[in-house]
């Protein structure tokens, strides 16, 4: 019972670590299950710091999954997006946490190799020291420092400035949805940044754009086309996913697709549309996330 209680206490943190390393809630849950089975074989009384120990176990299991998933990602049909997770409003209060699970950041993390991703996530998001990370990834501390420096430079060169979900961003999404429903091209364009991008993930199982749509004109036309062909019969609900404002499209009461909005300086800079039914199956669950102080 002591082992189960300790694991349950730290579960939100462990899920957050696994999800940020894997970009998949399903894989993160698998990692937690495997980690729990290993934890049950350990005497908690003999572990000096249960939380740090559990994060090490989860990190190692997530690294194994990342390496195994590489070939699956290379064979993926169309654009790949991380599995969206429904987040509670309070996630937006922690800007570092909200940014770290945002679609844009998760896509940047996909460009790192598994060890770089683990090191960056543990150090820059969760605050682990290089020595603690070295124990988790099985590398020398000096090597971890080099990896951290390289990964941070890579991420900072590609990251987009993040603006978490708020009342203001929610109003922008409302105006966007209303303009799309009205077929108002100019109103849509006024809400879009010049370099706005749409990325759609159908996983090869449903209709979705297989390449990103870039630029205000093309995105506005794309959105109006989608609305004319499929959105007019859907019920639309506001929501929060990955710390971002989002819209859920339900057809016949079932979630058909969802869109998360990236907003900066009052303009929409990114729309991330998820249609892959395998990823939508788990999209109704609100995931408790935790970036808790580690030490």
TrEMBL record:
<comment type="subunit">
    <text>Interacts transiently with the RNA polymerase catalytic core formed by RpoA, RpoB, RpoC and RpoZ (2 alpha, 1 beta, 1 beta' and 1 omega subunit) to form the RNA polymerase holoenzyme that can initiate transcription.</text>
</comment>
<dbReference type="GO" id="GO:0003677">
    <property type="term" value="F:DNA binding"/>
</dbReference>
<keyword id="KW-0804">Transcription</keyword>
<dbReference type="Pfam" id="PF08281">
    <property type="entry name" value="Sigma70_r4_2"/>
</dbReference>
<feature type="domain" description="RNA polymerase sigma factor 70 region 4 type 2">
    <location>
        <begin position="103"/>
        <end position="154"/>
    </location>
</feature>
<dbReference type="InterPro" id="IPR032710">
    <property type="entry name" value="NTF2-like_dom_sf"/>
</dbReference>
<dbReference type="InterPro" id="IPR014284">
    <property type="entry name" value="RNA_pol_sigma-70_dom"/>
</dbReference>
<dbReference type="GO" id="GO:0006352">
    <property type="term" value="P:DNA-templated transcription initiation"/>
</dbReference>
<dbReference type="InterPro" id="IPR036388">
    <property type="entry name" value="WH-like_DNA-bd_sf"/>
</dbReference>
<dbReference type="InterPro" id="IPR052704">
    <property type="entry name" value="ECF_Sigma-70_Domain"/>
</dbReference>
<dbReference type="GO" id="GO:0016987">
    <property type="term" value="F:sigma factor activity"/>
</dbReference>
<dbReference type="InterPro" id="IPR013324">
    <property type="entry name" value="RNA_pol_sigma_r3/r4-like"/>
</dbReference>
<dbReference type="InterPro" id="IPR013325">
    <property type="entry name" value="RNA_pol_sigma_r2"/>
</dbReference>
<keyword id="KW-0805">Transcription regulation</keyword>
<feature type="domain" description="SnoaL-like">
    <location>
        <begin position="173"/>
        <end position="269"/>
    </location>
</feature>
<dbReference type="InterPro" id="IPR013249">
    <property type="entry name" value="RNA_pol_sigma70_r4_t2"/>
</dbReference>
<keyword id="KW-0731">Sigma factor</keyword>
<dbReference type="Pfam" id="PF04542">
    <property type="entry name" value="Sigma70_r2"/>
</dbReference>
<feature type="domain" description="RNA polymerase sigma-70 region 2">
    <location>
        <begin position="7"/>
        <end position="70"/>
    </location>
</feature>
<dbReference type="Pfam" id="PF12680">
    <property type="entry name" value="SnoaL_2"/>
</dbReference>
<dbReference type="InterPro" id="IPR014303">
    <property type="entry name" value="RNA_pol_sigma-70_ECF"/>
</dbReference>
<dbReference type="InterPro" id="IPR007627">
    <property type="entry name" value="RNA_pol_sigma70_r2"/>
</dbReference>
<protein>
    <recommendedName>
        <fullName>RNA polymerase sigma24 factor</fullName>
    </recommendedName>
</protein>
<dbReference type="InterPro" id="IPR037401">
    <property type="entry name" value="SnoaL-like"/>
</dbReference>
<comment type="similarity">
    <text>Belongs to the sigma-70 factor family. ECF subfamily.</text>
</comment>
């Amino acid at each position: 019972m002591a082992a189960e209680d300790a694991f349950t206490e730290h579960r939100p943190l462990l899920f957050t670590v696994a999800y940020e390393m894997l970009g998949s809630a399903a894989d993160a849950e698998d990692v937690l299950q495997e980690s729990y089975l290993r934890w049950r074989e350990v005497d908690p009384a003999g572990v000096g710091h249960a939380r740090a120990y559990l994060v090490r176990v989860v990190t190692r299991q997530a690294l194994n999954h990342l390496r195994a998933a590489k070939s699956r990602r290379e064979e993926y049909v169309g654009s790949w997006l991380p599995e969206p997770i429904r987040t509670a409003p309070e996630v937006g209060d922690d800007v570092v946490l909200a940014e770290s699970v945002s679609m844009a950041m998760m896509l940047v993390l996909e460009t790192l190799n598994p060890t770089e991703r683990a090191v960056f996530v543990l150090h820059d998001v969760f605050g682990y020291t290089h020595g603690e990370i070295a124990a988790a990834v099985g590398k020398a501390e000096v090597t971890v420092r080099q990896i951290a420096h390289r990964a941070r430079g890579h991420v900072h060169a590609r990251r987009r400035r993040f603006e978490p979900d708020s009342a203001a961003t929610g109003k922008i999404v409302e105006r966007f949805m209303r303009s799309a429903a009205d077929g108002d091209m100019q109103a849509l364009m006024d809400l879009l940044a010049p370099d706005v991008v749409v990325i759609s993930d159908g996983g090869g199982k449903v209709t979705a754009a297989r390449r990103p749509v870039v630029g205000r004109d093309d995105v506005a036309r794309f959105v109006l086309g989608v609305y004319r062909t499929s959105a007019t019969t859907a019920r639309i609900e506001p929501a929060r996913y990955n710390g971002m404002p989002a819209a859920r499209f339900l057809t016949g009461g079932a979630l058909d697709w969802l869109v998360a909005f990236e907003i900066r300086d009052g303009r929409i800079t990114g729309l991330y549309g998820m249609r892959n039914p395998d990823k939508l199956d788990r999209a109704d669950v609100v995931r408790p996330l935790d970036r808790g102080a580690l030490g």
